[in-house]
Amino acid sequence: MISYNNKKFRSISNSESGEISPETIFKYFQKEGILWANYSGGSILLGNIVGIVDGRGEIKMRYQHISNDGSFKTGKCISSPEILSNKKIRLHEKWEWTSGKTGIGNSIIEEI
């Protein structure tokens, strides 16, 4: 199983209706198959994630954040890992807003 514990990630691409950017930093934690994270930066004042990691390292998660304009948004996401040649993790994400905004999209974040 891939361990995401104490790893930091940064966005490298996102769909137009998304809010994360390269300034958004994610800090992941994991205990067995349970994952949680905090994130902020760019247009995100404060956000957090809870999720479940399967044996292949795929993450099914829910996210919520407060944007710099004070709006509250929530969504769900499935992240599929890719191990890069330098052993860092790249996550390919398919997400959907569930409140505060509408739309679906794709993003990629990489371990820093």
Describe this structure in words.
- The protein is mainly beta.
- It has one domain: Lipocalin, CATH 2.40.128.
- The protein has strands at residues 7-14, 25-31, 34-41, 44-53, 59-67, 72-83, 89-99, 104-111.
- The chain has an 8-stranded antiparallel β-barrel with strand order 1-2-3-4-5-6-7-8.
- It is globular.
- The model has no long low-confidence stretch (mean pLDDT 96).
Structure in a nutshell:
The chain has no helices and eight strands.
SSE order and pairing:
Layout: E1 7-14, E2 25-31, E3 34-41, E4 44-53, E5 59-67, E6 72-83, E7 89-99, E8 104-111
Antiparallel strand pairs: 1-2, 1-8, 2-3, 3-4, 4-5, 5-6, 6-7, 7-8
Q: Roughly what percent helix?
A: under 10%
CATH superfamily (homologous) name: Avidin-like
The percentage of residues in β strands lies in over 45%
Number of continuous helical runs: 0
**Biggest β-sheet, characterized?**
8 strands, antiparallel, barrel
Low-confidence sequence ranges: none
* Mean pLDDT over the residues: 96
Per DSSP E runs of 2 or more residues, the count of β-strands stands at: 8
Q: Which strands sit side by side, in order, in the main sheet?
A: 1-2-3-4-5-6-7-8
Order of helices and strands: EEEEEEEE
- Please, how many domains? 1
**Which word captures the global form?**
globular
Distance between the termini: 20 Å
Core attributes:
8 strands; globular; Lipocalin; mainly beta; 112 residues
